Amino acid sequence: xxxxxxxxxxxxxxxxxxxxxxxxxxxxxxxxxxxxxxxxxxxxxxxxxxxxxxxxxxxxxxxxxxxxxxxxxxxxxxxxxxxxxxxxxxxxxxxxxxxxxxxxxxxxxxxxxxxxxxxxxxxxxxxxxxxxxxxxxxxxxxxxxxxxxxxxxxxxxxxxxxxxxxxxxxxxxxxxxxxxxxxxxxxxxxxxxxxxxxxxxxxxxxxxxxxxxxxxxxxxxxxxxxxxxxxxxxxxxxxxxxxxxxxxxxxxxxxxxxxxxxxxxxxxxxxxxxxxxxxxxxx
Amino acid sequence: xxxxxxxxxxxxxxxxxxxxxxxxxxxxxxxxxxxxxxxxxxxxxxxxxxxxxxxxxxxxxxxxxxxxxxxxxxxxxxxxxxxxxxxxxxxxxxxxxxxxxxxxxxxxxxxxxxxxxxxxxxxxxxxxxxxxxxxxxxxxxxxxxxxxxxxxxxxxxxxxxxxxxxxxxxxxxxxxxxxxxxxxxxxxxxxxxxxxxxxxxxxxxxxxxxxxxxxxxxxxxxxxxxxxxxxx
Amino acid sequence: xxxxxxxxxxxxxxxxxxxxxxxxxxxxxxxxxxxxxxxxxxxxxxxxxxxxxxxxxxxxxxxxxxxxxxxxxxxxxxxxxxxxxxxxxxxxxxxxxxxxxxxxxxxxxxxxxxxxxxxxxxxxxxxxxxxxxxxxxxxxxxxxxxxxxxxxxxxxxxxxxxxxxxxxxxxxxxxxxxxxxxxxxxxxxxxxxxxxxxxxxxxxxxxxxxxxxxxxxxxxxxxxxxxxxxxxxxxxxxxxxxxxxxxxxxxxxxxxxxxxxxxxxxxxxxxxxxxxxxxxxxxxxxxxxxxxxxxxxxxxxxxxxxxxx
Lengths: 283, 232, 309
Fold this sequence. Notes:
Shape of chain A: elongated
Order of helices and strands of chain A: HHHEHEHEHEHEHEHH
Shape of chain B: extended
CATH class of the largest domain in chain A: Alpha Beta
Structural class of chain A: alpha/beta
Structural class of chain B: mainly alpha
Oligomer: heterotrimer
Largest sheet of chain B: none
Radius of gyration of chain B: 27 Å
Helix content of chain B: over 70%
Number of domains of chain A: 2
């Protein structure tokens, strides 16, 4: 056994990981959640805004991180729609338009009473990394002259009177890297004191903690943050409980648990082998 | 001309942006500079595509090993570009029902949308998903408690991995009332909001100083590495 | 033929037969759509009367409604699901080495993404923010009919146009130095905005956020032990971390001891980062497997797309 584990072919580990994630998905295993303080802060921030508030939805992620971030993006959009906030969607990632469109499709299906242009608008993609943020915080029209359909901002009811991003009540940023939450903190929230909350990937989460709470009010970290947010949303809005699409992150916590347990088992096993090797003088 | 003018351009642009931050009257100068910056960023996408095209064509014409895959890349590139630039299959929207050119380039149902939805999306997300396998393999092979530092790192990872799952809740329920703060989820929260915050803040401050000094070196012409070594 | 090759060939053959059988019997991997027609009014213009134009869209319909009138299988989207499944498996085959399917789909990925970036760059910035300012009349008449009437030619935009051409000069065989001018503009602008913003948000503001009371009293005037410990740990932690990064003084004696503490703190930070990174990667894998099991194979139905079928 010791010799087998010492020279274990990595394909066995790959197979174990595949099974650890696949079996809970096939079995549909789900577990209850307990929201953490940071997630509760994000939820309360959106919940406590007066109905009809202006919310800038900066969705800076693409399909490469959809598994982690798209549930958050959808949950934020659902929450804002339920609160009747005005949503301004924009992305700084070229393929982010696909993710934004997916949210808009959801709004169209689940909230047919919301009107495009009056309740939500898609301002599309802007290249230049942090460049567009630097402009739109002082003059929106210098970077964005029309929505995704080519309609001038002066013709759209909800953008007609919006001069710049300082005019919104909240920035919600869903971020998978650069440009993302850090750039919104650097160029919008810190210099202009615009309330900002975020949802970000697991890789980014630890790096963003120094900004909380002075520059970033709260954040959802990785899929776990998304699951906790969905839990709070379902708790506050019982009408969503029959909607399976509103439980995407909660669903992902099953494979997450077994994946983490496997990782821990592998680390422990690797160290046991290491100490045995040391005892035998092999290392 | 080849080196002095670029240095002057960099310095002027940078200082205009710095000044526009402090003097409201010059705010629009900064906005204009950033508008041009964004246009150049879009041009960089085209430059990238052009470079890719050139490299693949060279590989094919030289019949270098793997030139068949270069041909696949080239075909995928040219077809997608054709679909996108000519808005193939894009239907007009209600805003401009007689002009399909005004509709979004990746409108649902269009050829470019198909490429993104059924090629780019699965390919990009699976590439990143693969890392789950390699992280597992690395954890087994390289994550050893060889010294104090490695042990601290390992124990922290252990707590965070458990603290962000359902197991943490079960353990918390087993713990007596007075020891609730020692549950994995609570410990994870402390680690993140105290130790991680402090460590990351030190790193952030260090990076900020690094960025500021590098920027100053560029603007003052001390750092000229971006100009390249030769005259051409 | 090698034993391993034979094994994989056999496995693929069995898999192919099972898949084909399942696709015929169960009908998995199909996408149903419905044709939706709407009418849009076109206002009267000079020489043309007002008219109503019919617009057609195809919307995805869940498989459970496949028998509803007007719902049919979409050939393009069904092929798309199978292509997406092939792409997913092709990338995953990298786990077995650099296989031909992997190399094939990787080549497709590079080509598609580079072209997509070019397309978005062209439509979202060059057309919308460059050409619209240089030739607004032409743009209004062709690509941007919604362009505001207030937009008039702004010849300052000749500058970014010239810089753009200079940048593309890099592709020419000679005169690559010409591209240094726009590059210098780019570097200068980045340095300019980052210098101020990093100092403000990541230096001054971070120091300000670290100035915390080490002895905390609650609202009722009582001593808050936990908040005091927390603040003390944050302040001392930041200082320890900074001492470690301070390389101008040798890490010996007291400084060495403090730097050691800084290293330990950073190890906790990196351990936390590792935990979160693992979380992210597993979520992405779960997403891809869900696609294979749900959209392609119809083995699971978490969003009730096929409920009652």
